Amino acid sequence: MEDKITTLLKKIPKVEKGQKVVLGIDGLSRSGKTTIVRSMEQHIQEKDILSCVLHIDDYIVEREKRYSTGNEEWYEYYNLQWDVEWLKENLFKRLKEYNELKLLTYDSISDSQKLYSIKIPDTCLIIIEGVFLQRKEWRNYFDFMIYLNCVREERFKRESVDTQKNIEKFEKRYWKAEDYYMKTVSPIEQADLVIHN
Questions:
Q1: Which pTM does this prediction carry?
Q2: Rounded to a whole number, what is the distance in angstroms from the first to the last CA of the chain?
Q3: Residues with Cβ < 8 Å from 197, sequence gap 6 or more?
């Protein structure tokens, strides 16, 4: 993993003084995005580069907006899990222009969104990790995109035993949405760097 991170950091754009570089870590569920980001953060801190990490799953909407909406489950997951346009306007469009963002952040305990402020230094590597990052509404806001490629069987093994028991949810909701993303967006071909994880 150490070698992978060192190689990866050499390939991403260098952050010059007064510049913000937006790096995307895209990949399907359980492909290892969070693990890679944690390792990257350690390396970046050692090099005294300021970074800001955002997890796209922190900005999902309330359950009633993404479950039992009358749409197919895969559609709910791909199109309704996030307010795609709101995030485009309030997160992606403002990343390089503002030093503070006010973002609706999901609280799973209360199943509600609360407004939180995030500070972004003038010189900063902004790392955004999550699924479906290369959708057409968001893709152009990234300076560099990494896609973590991992086969479905391997990713499914990484789920907890209890989660694996509900395979119907994966078949109807997650896997169909993933297939749609792979077919319509072609994230492997679009990425600047593909890591087989």
A1: 0.92
A2: 10
A3: 27, 31, 32, 36, 148, 149, 150
